[in-house]
Amino acid sequence: MSTQKFALITGATSGIGYELAKLFAQDGTNLIIVARNEDNLSQTATELRAINNITVHTITADLFEPGAANKVYEQAKELGVGIEYLVNDAGQGEWGRFFKTDLDREIDLVQLNIIALMSLTKYFLQDMVAQNSGRILNLASSLAKAPTPYMAVYAASKAFVLSFSEALVKELEETNVTVTALLPGATDTDFFHKAKAENTVTYKETSLYDPAEVAKGGYDAFLNGEATVQPGFKNKAQNTMSTLLPDGAVASNMEKQMVSSMEEDGKSEITHEASARERDSINIKNGGVNGDFKPHNLN
């Protein structure tokens, strides 16, 4: 097996995952990037290699599919490289009242946000503990601490990620392996498009975090072995309030952020280039119909 250190990153072609990949590349860490869209993977790999002449392998995988995490692990092992860092970034949401949304779509979200993340963590963590070295970064969310109407399944799935990660921190105290949970606030990525949430108050009327800023905060905390990180002052303040207020009050506050906006001239475009590219590729796959994203349409 190669002695070179590699980071494996899911969801690396857009948003926070893309910016994290760039940070690893800048530090000279070789990469294995994982996503579903082969064209986006290829373009992203080319961009990352140009940063610091690193080695970048790609794995095309649909983590909505049961068993896909095991296939990713096996393909990574076949490359004969050591995975020192694992970043579980891939995740999606679905906007709407739960009794109206599509159950199959939400089962897919649980598969992606929980089962795939848990499985990849299991596979690579066993190797890391055996070698007594490694770091894992799991993407949770500011909603992990906030019951969120109109994003009920997403928020609950991220509560799992946070609780799961914090439990592993305790289990691994006697090892040189660390787990960090990143809790970003609303960020300027293609998340809202995939979740059909582009008409919400949060998206149209509030200032979204820069993915590069969020990634840098998460990356630094990850390398320092911190248990959790919440980049941004507003994000920290919101999480503090979520801790202090009763859950019912938190849910009421979150509902106000997730309802449909009445603002006609609010935000409508992604400014983050890689995320805009991802959004465009989804629209092309769906015949140009924005907001009609089905998880298995993009192969």
UniProtKB/TrEMBL annotation:
Keywords of this entry: Oxidoreductase
Highest rank taxon of the organism: Bacteria
GO cellular component: membrane
CDD domains referenced in this protein's UniProt entry, alphabetically: SDR_c (cd05233)
UniProt region (Disordered), positions on chain: 264-299
Biased composition (Basic and acidic residues): 264-282
GO MF annotations in UniProt: oxidoreductase activity
PANTHER family linked to this entry: DEHYDROGENASE/REDUCTASE SDR FAMILY MEMBER 7B, SHORT-CHAIN DEHYDROGENASE-RELATED
Membership in a protein family: Belongs to the short-chain dehydrogenases/reductases (SDR) family.
Protein name: Oxidoreductase
UniProt source species: Flavobacterium subsaxonicum WB 4.1-42 = DSM 21790
